[in-house]
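Q: How do we represent a protein-ligand complex in a form that can be generated token by token?
A: Start from the inputs.
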Amino acid sequence: MNLLQSLEEAIKKGNRDDAVKNTKEALSINMPPKDILDALVRGMDDIGRRFKINEIFVPEMLIAARAMKESIAVLEPILVEAGIKPEYTAIIGTVQGDLHDIGKNLVGMMWKGANFNVIDLGSNISPEKFAEAVLTHKPDVVGLSALLTTTMPMMKNTVDVIREKTGNAVKIIIGGAPVTQDYADEIGADGYAADAASAVDLVRSLLVSLPG
Ligand code: B1M
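Then emit the structure tokens for the protein with CO-5-methoxybenzimidazolylcobamide bound:
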């Protein structure tokens, strides 16, 4: 088994120590951070598949998620260190009622890697808190994440409250497993990205046309 396969296995087993050790080892031999990230995501995808067929349950998911988070904490500075001056300021958070933060963290990490100044509000964030953060930090873009079909409507509330309290200047983009481009159009968001890498391209394409 090669190093990336061992890393994927460590995530599947929720073995934090091995996950962190393998991540550090992969970095020490200059493996591309993107390949390391892909191994982490593959491990977590498998966790989701097995949860669906009732092969594992919430505690195992939590343990795997914790291992992934710790590996990501090791990986993050490597992706970030290339940046000199942030290109854009971005706020990100998972909407109210939703505790899933792994995908949101990945998007934030990719944005940091793309040299954006990222303000991560965390998960379970109310529309009002998003709006306050927009007024405080004056970002170029706000990213909303949701992983539950039951919290998707909170995306619409959040878009509405941000628009009402801060106007139309800030771009709002949405993402998360149940979210689609159609849904983004329906709720008046400026864009939708299917994954963390596309979220970088999307921000750039939305902001490049802005004057100034
Ligand atoms: Co939950 N969970 N979970 N869970 N969980 C899902 C989402 C689920 C699909 C599992 C299943 O049934 N197969 C299901 C949702 C069903 C639905 O609504 N259709 C589900 C459920 C039901 C629940 C609970 C209700 C379970 C329960 O208690 N009965 C509960 C809800 C709690 C709550 O939020 N209020 C719950 C709890 C949890 C844990 C806490 C145990 C844990 C979360 C830990 C954490 O995040 N800190 C957890 C996990 C880990 C999962 C799965 C297994 C993995 C999610 C994940 O992190 N994926 C998930 C099953 C699955 O997705 N296969 C599941 C990896 C991550 C990289 O992918 O977040 O999709 P994802 O992010 C992607 C893209 O979506 C995109 O980029 C990322 C990849 O590059 N993206 C964006 C995400 N946000 C974006 C924002 C953007 C752009 C792109 O722009 C701003």
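The chain has two domains: 3-82, 88-207. The CA atoms of residues 92 and 143 lie 5 Å apart.
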